[in-house]
Structures are given as C-alpha cells and as structure tokens.
User: Fold these one by one.
Assistant:
Number 1:
Amino acid sequence: MANTTLSLIFDTDSHFLQIMNHCPKAIHIHEEGPREGFQIEPGPIATADKVKFIEALANTGLKEVQAVSFVNPKRVPGMADAEEVARLIRRKEGVRYTSVWLNLKGLERAMQTPLDVYGRLQISASESFSIKNTGKNTQDTLIEQRQIIEFCMEKNLSIDSAIVMTAFGCNIEGEIKEEKVTQQINLLMNLLKEYDMRLPYLRLADTVGWANPRSMDRVISSVQDKWPELSLGLHLHDTRGTGLANAVVGLSKGIEHFDSSCAGLGGCPFAGHKGAAGNICTEDLVFLCEEMGISTGVDLDALIECAHMAEGIVGHALPGKVMRGGSLSKYKNHTQGF
Amino acid sequence: MANTTLSLIFDTDSHFLQIMNHCPKAIHIHEEGPREGFQIEPGPIATADKVKFIEALANTGLKEVQAVSFVNPKRVPGMADAEEVARLIRRKEGVRYTSVWLNLKGLERAMQTPLDVYGRLQISASESFSIKNTGKNTQDTLIEQRQIIEFCMEKNLSIDSAIVMTAFGCNIEGEIKEEKVTQQINLLMNLLKEYDMRLPYLRLADTVGWANPRSMDRVISSVQDKWPELSLGLHLHDTRGTGLANAVVGLSKGIEHFDSSCAGLGGCPFAGHKGAAGNICTEDLVFLCEEMGISTGVDLDALIECAHMAEGIVGHALPGKVMRGGSLSKYKNHTQGF
C-alpha cells in the first residue's frame, strides 16, 4: 500500500493494532454530492443554488468537489446547466473541481469549461453489467478506453485514474470474484503500457451496493497483493446500510481516497424513491475518520451546515446521520478529547 | 471470548484472516424495535398494531423480542398499554419476549404479565450521566442493584445480564477511558460475588452514540482481556452513522449478541425529531452478517416486510436501508452465491 503510515500511538497499545495498524494518518475525500444529488432530483434545481452549494463545500476544507456531469441533457435534464454551473463557480485556491463525462463528446464539453479536467479510464468487473449499462462488452470498452487515451495524448491531458465498476457484485452476475477484478485491472494496465503510461490511481466501485466487509477485505487484498504500489480509492454506495462499515475495512487496509456525498445526496430515505442508493455520506465519513484519529482536513461543523443547505435546496430529507445527531465538538471543547 | 469459532474456510485464505478470524459463526439478536420505537412515537399507536408487529417479528426467526417497557405512563404515555400488549401476544415457541423496567416497581409489574422476566443489573460508565439520567451516583446505583439482586433471590428470578451504559462516551464526561468501564464492571462483579453469583452476560451500551471503531476496539479488548470467559453483547445507537461499522468491530472480536431495532425504529430521518438517535437497524445488521457468512437465523425478506409494517404503523419513514435497497436474495437465487 502506498503512503500508509504506522502511527506510533497505535504501536504502544496492542489493542489498537488489529483495527488501526494499517489505517492512514489522513484521507482525501472526493465530494460528489452536487453531481450525484442534483442529477437524480426530479428538479428543477436553480443554477444559483448549485453554485452556492459547491462554493460552500469548497469552504469546508474539502479539496476535490465534483460539480456536474456532461451528459445528454435530454436524458438527464438536471444537468442541462452544467456549463453554466462550471462557469459561475468562484474557485477557491487549492480545490479541484471535477466532472463526470461518459464519452469523448462529454469530455470535449468538459474541456471547454474552467473545471479541472483529467483523463479517466473505466472498466466493469461484471461484463453483463457493462453490456446493460453502456451497451459495450469488455472488448468494446477497451476500444473506447484506447480512444480516450489517444485523445488525451493529443490534447495533452493527463490520465489521473481508472475506475472498476461493480467490483464487489452486480445484480446480473451476482458476487464478483477477486480474480475477475484483477483480470480487468490487468487489461487496463496492459493497455496503458502500450502507450508507455502507468496507472497512478485506481478506484474500486461498489456500483450497485453489493459489498460487505468480507468481500471488501477479499477484493482489496487481492489488488494490493498484485500491485502493492498502486494507490487505491473506494467509491461506495450505502444501498443496504453497510457503506461506512465497508469504508472502515478500506481504512484498515490503508486506503486513503474515498468518494462520498454531502448529506448522502443521491440517496433518499423515502420508500419507492429510486435514489435510495446514494453514496456514503461525506460528513458521516468525516466524523468516523476524525473520531478514529484519521485526519480529513474538513471542518465537520461547516460541512454539517452544507448538508442542511442541501436539504433546503432539494426540499426533502436526505439520509445523512451526523447532520441530525450533531458533531461532538461542543462536548469535546470542554471535556478531555480523545 | 466465549464460543468464538475459527471457521476453516477463512483459514484457507490469508486475505480473510484480518477481518474474519474471530468472527462468530452465528449471532443472537435481541430485537428492541417495538419497545424502542413505540415508546418514542408521539402516537397514539393502537395496541392491536403493537401486537401484530411483535407477532410478525417473532415469525421471522428472531428469538428474542423486547415487547414493552413498564415505566410511568404519565412520563411515557406510549407505554400505558404495556400490560395489555403483553397479555395479547400469541407467543411463538422458542421466542423470548422481554421488557424494560427501570426499578423494582416496574419489575413487579413485568412479573404480573406472561412476558419472560429476568433480573438485569445496570451501571453507567459515566457517573455524571448516571446522576443526570437516574439521579443516582455510582454508590447509589450499587445500592439499587443490591436491592434488585435480593429481590430476584426472594422471587427466585435468575439474573441473566448486566448492562454498562455510556461505555464509549457521554455528553458530559466526553470520551470514556476503558479503565473506567472495567472498573464499573468490577463493582458489579464484586457485588454479585457477595451473593455467590456470577455474571453470565454483559452488554456494553453506546447510549448516546459516541462509539467509533477505534474506541470499540479499545473498550472491548480491555473487557475481554480482563474477563475472557464473559459473554459480551453490544447495544449500539446509530446516532452518527457509525453503528454498523462499530458492529463489525464487535463481530471481528467474537461478539455474538447484538441489540437492534427493526427498520431502525426509535430513530427518524427527519430533522429536529428527537428520535434521530435510534438503535442500529435489525435488517441492516442481518443483511451485513448473512453476507459475511455469519448466520442470524432470521429470514431477511420476512424481516423487511416487518420494517414496512413498522413504517405503516408509525406513519412516517424510518431510517432502515435494506428495506429500501432490498435484499440480494432475488439475484442470488439464480446466480452463484457467495
């Protein structure tokens, strides 16, 4: 595992070792709430509200905020104002403003905006999911990834990461074996090698909420065993309540990069709402990490304010927990902290 | 740890060892939804609905259901029909129907019903919390526990467990040191010794939602080191979203007993609702365990039906996740299971 630390305070007490000896000292959070959430809402959400929310998030200490997706406005009307949002954000120094695009057309749109644009590769561990979701099997996906690599080379755009979708299971193929995950990663690695490139960072995605602590352990260990120097990130959905438990397994295996959504945007606590399957909630993740002594760089109370702002913007309750339970800061300021 | 098993399938692959080598093969769940949930609702909840829900829970495979609390009906009007609920339940063989009582008067009321009544001791790790919550410091609490022991001896009632409240932190004293927890347990142990009794089972309660995976690890390890033969249980609140993550630490340390609430009853996803701090959700816990290969004896799909029933009874959304995300059974029946 790259960049993991063995903090001395854990070494002094064997009790901590099992959980803590591979935990990173700090994590990096990629905040995906504005894109995940506003994309799924029946809307319309005012452009000004989106911008206000993104700016508030950037003021909490978060260093990477996914602002919009460049997708077909006919299919995703909530993102029709993507260019406008991107243009209106007053940027904060040191913060990356990212976006999602699904093909070269989307990538070209993204490049016309002031957002931070990078090349990103993707592959699905479940080929059946890939065919259903994108119409492409693994071979066709690789052809598309090759086009992205060549486009990025032409445009002098660096490829900053790859993502493996459905790395823990999918509704068609069921549980995914770790060998399948490493096999798909290998295909991307080999493709990059053809261009004398190497993969700097890989995200494992629990796209449809199948992961559990045991499968997390299994898949992450396999990837780490095979590529000990590869920096890993987790993109977890809290579809069935196991999101933070899965994140803790990631932490205990030294993972330092997490995608998450402020207030759990993208999910919804109401029955029948298609958005029930949101990402893990950013402020809950921040709370968890900070309580465990893992630094996030985020002002939790400021982030909780953002979560309330998000509820105000979408006009209904969101699934985050700490935004209701509250942080512990007001108790710890006058008591002996951890 | 009592009764932990080292399943062979984990031994064959070192990847599983870190998380799984101390996990129990099976857990026992104490379902507290009817009591936790219906106590907190502004109500009124029809007695017949309470009974119907308790009976449905007992039909899912759950072996212990907390039906009611015997408390002052002026202070907790939602429990004014406790005796009637207890009388109306059509009991299922092999299921324990438990109750909460806070003093000898409540215990005497419980004994007049057909419920399964046992002596239970309690102490708080935070003395300040105890004083605020019950008006008793540790010394006065011990006097009361002595009265309970003597009452139970007189009535031939066995003492089945003790609970340590605020074992991981409290809003007055902040983080609780593990030495404080073992010190308070010691007081109860010594008290029981005076009567030639020993404690069969101890529950550690995160009463106000302070626990995190690291403090779980710390406190549980300390208790296990001191009393390796003591059977432990966890009573966790999901106040800040870390409930299941904390439960996984408990599992990884061999803990086999968990309190939880169907649908997350007792909590509520709405801002400003005092019930935000519910127990961990039973069906989410069942999902997590079964996916990890830990047997719960519960039919998850039947339990999800109970969760929907609970929402119907209280008339608003409840915080459970699997009840919206759905179990994986329909996908696994025609795919290769884990």
Number 2:
Amino acid sequence: MEAIGVEPGGTRPRVVDVPRPDPEPGEALVRTLRVGVDGTDRGIIAGDHGSLPPGEDLLVLGHEAVGVVETAPETGFERGDVVAPTVRRPPTDGGNEFFERGEADMAPPGATVERGIDGAHGFMSEFFTSPASSLVRVPETLACWGFLVEPVSVVEKALELARASRSSFDWTPQTALVLGNGSLGLLAVAALVGEFDVYCLDRRSRPQPGIDIVERLGGTYVDARETPLPAIPDQHEPADLVFEATGYAKHAFQSIEALAPNGVAALLGVPDSWRFEVDGGRLHERLVLSNRALVGSVNSGPRHFRRAVDRIGSFPDWFPASYVSRVVDVDSFSAAFEAGDQILKTAVEFDSS
Amino acid sequence: MEAIGVEPGGTRPRVVDVPRPDPEPGEALVRTLRVGVDGTDRGIIAGDHGSLPPGEDLLVLGHEAVGVVETAPETGFERGDVVAPTVRRPPTDGGNEFFERGEADMAPPGATVERGIDGAHGFMSEFFTSPASSLVRVPETLACWGFLVEPVSVVEKALELARASRSSFDWTPQTALVLGNGSLGLLAVAALVGEFDVYCLDRRSRPQPGIDIVERLGGTYVDARETPLPAIPDQHEPADLVFEATGYAKHAFQSIEALAPNGVAALLGVPDSWRFEVDGGRLHERLVLSNRALVGSVNSGPRHFRRAVDRIGSFPDWFPASYVSRVVDVDSFSAAFEAGDQILKTAVEFDSS
C-alpha cells in the first residue's frame, strides 16, 4: 500500500510502498481517510525532532488522522465506524502505568513513542492498525473534519490542566488571550469564544485568512508589532487565561505580565534553547502576589479526544471549511507540507468514502 | 492598652498606648496571648513594604496571632474560646466578592487590607477585635503554639493550589523539595514529611538549629553551595513538588529544572526586581514537554487556617518548642525582631493565661 515516509532531517517526504499492516488481537485495521499536517511534521522533515522506528530506515509521517474501521474483531468497534487515533503508544519494551490508566499524555519522555513523530510509524498510509483503546469514535457527519480531532484534543488537554490549576477557588474567567493565530492558535480561539472574550495576538499583516477567522469567530486580533504582549492589559484587558501557541520562548515569561490576578497561562510551544534576560524578580513577585500560574501541556489522551469530538461539533458550520486551506490527494501530497502566511491548515486525503 | 507600633521604614518599633478597641456587632473582642514575628514584619520595619491605616501615624504590627475570646455576643464564639485571626480584611470602602465567599486570600492587590501589614492595625496589642468570620478556633491544648496557625495556613494554601494544579490526572507525588530552611521553609518540611521524601535546600552552615530540625523531622538537608538547585535531580532525585520559601528570584526559574515530569513548584517568596539571564527556551520547553507547572501563592483564608490547626496537631510533640527560638514579653519585645542564623521563630507574649 502507499504511504508517505521521510528520513527525519534527511530526504524530502516521498510516497513509498509498504506492507499493509495486520491487526493484532485487540487492534482495529483502519482505512485512512485524511491526515492533517502541522508544524511538528514540518519539524520532523527539517530534522528538528522526530526519530525512526527501531530497525526502520524511514518514518511514515502523520499523527492527525481520521479513518474508517475495516475490521476490528472483539474490540467494540464495527466495520464502518469512523475513528480518530491517539498518538502515543507504549515503547517497544512494553507498557507502563501511564498507558494502563489511559494517561499516556502524562508519560515522561522515554516512556512512550509517538506515532508519526518519535519511534513509531504514523498514519499517512492507506491503512493503519491501532489498539482499539487508542481509537475514539467520530460521528460520520464529522468524518471529513475528523483529522482535526487530534489538534483540538491538544487544546482540550491544555484547557483541562489550566482549569484544574484554578479549581481550588472560585474562578470565573472572562478574558482569554491566545498567543499565535497559526493552526493551533485558531483552534484555541474557536474553542474559547463560546465562553471567553477572546484576544488573539500574532505578528501577521492583513489580509491574512487567520486574522479573518479570529474576527469572524468574534475574537479581537492584536498585532504584536503594535501592542506587544506585556502591553495588552493596559491597551485591552488583562487575561484570565493565556493560551500560548507560538513556541516563542519570551512569551512564556511575558504571559505572566499579561495575566489578570489569579490567572493562568497554558504553555504549548516547544522552543529551542535561547538565553535572554528577564526581570526574574518582578515575574516571581507577580506570580506570587496575585496567585498566578503557568502550566505546561503536551500531547493529549483519549478523554481529550472525546471532548475534541464534541468541540468540533460545536464549531460554527463555516469554520472547518474556512480553517482548512487545502486537502490534497496522495499524488499531490507535497502541497500539504508547504507553509506560508496564507496557508492555515492542510491535509492529505487517502480515501474520501 | 499596650501595643507595639511602627512607622514603616521610619522609627524602630516601640510600645505605645492605644485605646482598647470596642467590638462592632458580629465582632469578637479577643485578649491577645502571643503574636509571632516573621520576615514580613522585619520588612515593614525596614520600609520594604507595609502601609499605615488611613489617618494613622503608626501601624500596630503583628499578623500571626492567637488569643482568647473576651466577649463575642451572637457570633457563635464564647468567652474563653481560643482563636487565631485571619489577616485580610475588606478595604475601608467596603467588602467585595472575595470576602463574601470567604476567599479574601484570592483578592487582588487593592481589594484588601492586611492587618499588621498593609493599611490596617495588626494584633500586637493587649486586645484586638475581629469579625467572627475571620476567626478560627484553636484547641486549648495548642493555645501556646496558636501563633503558628497563620504561617502554617500559608503553607496549606500553597499546597492546596499545587495539588489542584495536578488534579486533572493521577498524580502520586513522592518527593518534595523545600527551598529555604527559614521559618516558613521549616513549617513546610514539617507539613510534608508525613507524605513525601523531603529535601530542604539552603546555604546555611552547621551547626544551625534549622538544619537539625530538618534532619530530626526525617528530611535531608542540601547545602546549595555544594549542590545548587538545578543539580538536585542528578545528585539526589527530581522533585514532584518544589516549595519555594526563599524569595530568591532565580529559584522560581531553577525550580523548573529540579522538577520531575508532571511536577509542580509552589512559589511563595516576594523578591524585588532583579534582571538576570535565563535559558528561556529550555525552561519553556521543559514546562511543556513534561507537563510541569508553577503556581504562585499568597496569603491564606479560613479553610487554610482550619487545616493548619489540624496540621499543627499532627506535628511531633518536640517540634514547636524546638522551632520557636524565643518568646519574649512586651517589655523585651525588641528581642523578637532580631534575626540571625541561629534564630528560627520568635513571638511576643501579651498574656500567658
């Protein structure tokens, strides 16, 4: 069968022929519909991260997938069920407590592999197999947008951690500030506008489709070149919740300045090492005297996937089609890996039925 | 009646004669037993923080008090009840939602005054009044150590926020690292040793009574001059919980390096402005990829006071008497404000009965 593979940091991705996988007991064989592309995929191609499965010479890409169950004996799934797979799997030397309790997203580095990213093949192939416990049902009506379940689940997990951090007191947040109007930031804006007054900060110039989407969702776009992050409380409002989706390391620290008292910043970016100066005394003091918090969040688990399915169902009808810039078939797959200011979200389509 | 007052940053504290307060309806008149002294008091004397009550020319000090109810009509308290008062009160322009729901500790700066610290007289006087809702019962057997309820409550609130931040997943912490073996750090060690393997880091040399207490409690003292904070995971263990009680701003950031995956650092120190360089990219990445968190915590509320009463009851019998270096009467009060490596905790005694 066809798959899209890459040697991380080496070759460009290419279509390769790989054997169709055979499901083990407890696994489903899934026919792939669409697989989304994000910055992690581009980072693997560039060699910034990612690793080959043991003994393999290329990595099948893709960690944002939706597919249709082909066979899944004794798993609770039936042929025809639409499903989205979670990303983390036990390392080859076996499972661990995090997998046993369905919280692989909390497994430390080394206690997990990540399909399509680190040490395990991804979902960019005509078929894939997965343990049924790592598949989440997607309503048939959302099948064509089911590749958004994974990135939305990453938003849901970060929100869960952020809310939990404020759960010991009466917290009634009103204002959210999303850092970055890229593909993840826009999903956060879409998730938050129902409950928050949402600001979204980036450095992009109009016309840009991500800015249009922020505004159509009811959010306020803030150009960081005019209003830097620490100025947002004065220029707009302090944020009860900051959602960082830029990977710009200074944002982790400037977020503290942008928070309202008792606010929390959820950090999702993964920057490289970068030394810079901060007023560490002031940041420390501001965290303490106003009970502020920073929470880092990575990956997501089955319960976040289930919430993501509900969330996508609640998005405005126009949103997915506006947010997804292009869906290309396997023959044109390389167009899905192009990035640019006018491209929001892309996917590769393996099967449309 | 006698009180100990100060002009913040001006005069040394002195014994002054002030009118005995009359309780308003809903308030209790409390005869003061003992009032503890901490770094905040010394900071007020030095002029680092603190402010006078409106229209007053000195501030009665003291925010760590225990006393005996003298009169408290229609409050649920009776003459002879031992009580500890919380610190925050509504500003003179009236209460707000934080006070209404018993969470004044979450009130932002400006929405509260603090008795003995900011804009309201403290408890270092023969008598004080307090709304009954701001008093917490202390068992008679703990009356002489009841001035520890306030500082222990500050520990309890920080632990509550830290645990809440980890409540969305299965968190089974084993190792705690307390930064600072000063008066607050030692209370944290005493609170944590029942549940955690506790390390306590400071820069003090033996012989020092705080080091002896850490070890007698079953904790491990770490000399930061030999093992700096970021080296603790390699030299000892990564910490599931860091409890920062130094006010040393670099600790807020180095804590991230000392945390285990999924760990949380509770920050309690209040440093001055201090610019320094950090590897912000690495810290940001470590927060994200291992789901780490930082939570700031200030002050404490009635529920933390109640938990503190229980906690003090669970301390080893030897602990309070070893921890409290000196209790002096009003005539010798200035000895209670002396600080030094051999002095852990001090208090002024107004009445011993």
